[in-house]
Amino acid sequence: MTSSIPDSVSMSDLEKFSKKAQAPVQKPLYNGLTKDEVEELAMKTLRDMSRKCNDPMVEKCMMLAISASWVRWHTEMAQEAMPATADSDSDKSEGATDFATCLLRDAGKAQAIYTLVRDIIMDNDFVMNPGSGDSE
Questions:
Q1: Tally of CB atoms within 10 A around 49
Q2: How far is CA 29 from CA 21, 22, 33, 36, 81, in A?
Q3: Conformation bin of residue 82: beta by default, left when phi > 0, alpha when psi is -120 to 50
Q4: How far is residue 78's CA from residue 59's CA, in Å, rounded to a whole number?
Q5: Which of 113, 101, 111 is CA-nearest to residue 77?
Q6: Can you name the residues that pair with 33 across neighbouring β-strands?
Q7: HEC profile of the chain
Q8: 27-31, 52-56, 85-89: which has the minimum mean pLDDT?
Q9: How far apart are the first and last CA of the chain?
Q10: I want to staple 110 with a disulfide (CB 3.0 to 4.6 A). Which of 26, 60, 64, 71 is the partner?
C-alpha cells in the first residue's frame, strides 16, 4: 500500500505553496470572466482598435457608444425596479425606490459623459460636423 503523504517536503515547495495560498482567488463575476480577464480584454480591444485606426475619432466613437450603452443599461435596470416601488407601505418598496433613483442618477451621469464627449471636436469630426468625413 502506498501513502499519499510524502516523507519530506522541501522548503522551496513550502514557499511556493504559501505564496499560492496567499494569492487572492478571483471569481468569474463578469459574464464568466474574472476582473483581470475583463481588464485584459478591454486593453487588448483598445490596442487592436488603435492598430487598425490610430485616429482619435475612433476613440470618440467608442466613448459615445459606451456611454450610450451605459445610459440604456441604467435606464432599463431602473425600469425593471420601478414595479417594486408601487407598494408604498413596505420596506422593500423603499429599497426599490432608492435603487431605481440611484440607477436613474447614474443614467444621467452617463448622459453627461456622452454630451461632453460629443462636444469635443476632432479633425474631420463627422459627429459635430456631419459630412466632414465623407471626402476622400
A1: 14
A2: 21, 20, 6, 11, 22
A3: alpha
A4: 28
A5: 101
A6: 30
A7: CCCCCCCCCCHHHHHHHHHHHHCCCCCCCECCECHHHHHHHHHHHHHHHHHHCCCHHHHHHHHHHHHHHHHHHHHHHHHHHHHHHCCCCCHHHHHHHHHHHHHHHHHHHHHHHHHHHHCCCCCCCCCCCCCCCCCC
A8: 85-89
A9: 80
A10: 71
**In this model, does residue 136 exceed pLDDT 60?**
no
Residue 112: other Cβ atoms inside 10 A: 12
Q: What is d(CA 92, CA 97) in angstroms, rounded to the nearest whole number?
A: 9
In angstroms, rounded to a whole number, what is the distance separating the alpha carbons of residues 133 and 76?
Answer: 33
Cell triple for 30:
463578469
